[in-house]
Amino acid sequence: MNNKQTFEISNYLWETGDYKPKTTVELSYDENGYKVHFISNETNLRRVETEHHTPVCLDSCVEMFVQFLPGTDDRYINFEINPNAAVHCAIGPDRYERKFYDTSAIEMLNCHTAVHDDGWEVFFEIPLSFIHLRYPEYVHKSGTTIRANFYKCGNKTVHPHWCSWNKVDTPNRDFHRPEYFKEIVL
b/e for 49-75, b at 16 or more Cβ within 10 A? Predict the structure, then answer.
């Protein structure tokens, strides 16, 4: 099993206005887990937060929310990362009942970023050992189905923006809406 899928984060939501940085995410997977690569042409970055579990969504930010056992376990993990590789990562069934991953678990993600003149990138891994911390029954093989959504935001950037891969149809800004996650088949 060694596959890659590319998703365009192009559903601009709420009061984004005219600023729409092109952002894609490549999700690859092999026998060891997942590799995630976000590419955004956002420039004029906001990169204030430097510590894990800080409000990185206020900075330039990319996010992946994923359910590894859809239909069996309604919890999902949110991975939110800014250009400083500060990671906000928790698990729970909704916005309110979330449990943070500790620093040693976040280090397992091997997250790093690169900033260029024309944008920035995020690279991180989701190894099976990380998944099995909270989903011990997860089976990783060809044909496995997960549910996810990918996001690009910048709540306090020069040009505030909110964007998703699969459209989120709510009147107020809220990415913690698993009903708008979409199936991805390995």
Answer: beebbbebbbbbbbbbbbbbbbeeeeb
**Does 18 have pLDDT greater than 90?**
no
Cα–Cα distances in angstroms (integers) from residue 156 to residues 61, 159, 160, in the given order: 10, 8, 6
- Longest CA–CA separation in the chain, Å: 44
Question: What is the amino acid identity at position 107?
Answer: E
Whole-number Å distance between alpha carbons of 124 and 48: 20
Cβ contact 27:4 at 8 Å: yes
DSSP secondary structure code for residue 15 in this structure:
T
Structure tokens at 23: 């952002």
The span from the CA of 55 to the CA of 90, in Å, is 12
Cα–Cα distance measured from residue 56 to residue 95, given in angstroms and rounded to the nearest whole number: 16
Q: pLDDT by residue (tens digit) across 28-80? A: 999 999 999 999 999 999 999 999 999 999 999 999 999 999 999 999 999 99
CB atoms within 10 A of CB 131: 20
Q: What is the pLDDT of residues 8-17, one digit of tens each?
A: 999 998 887 7
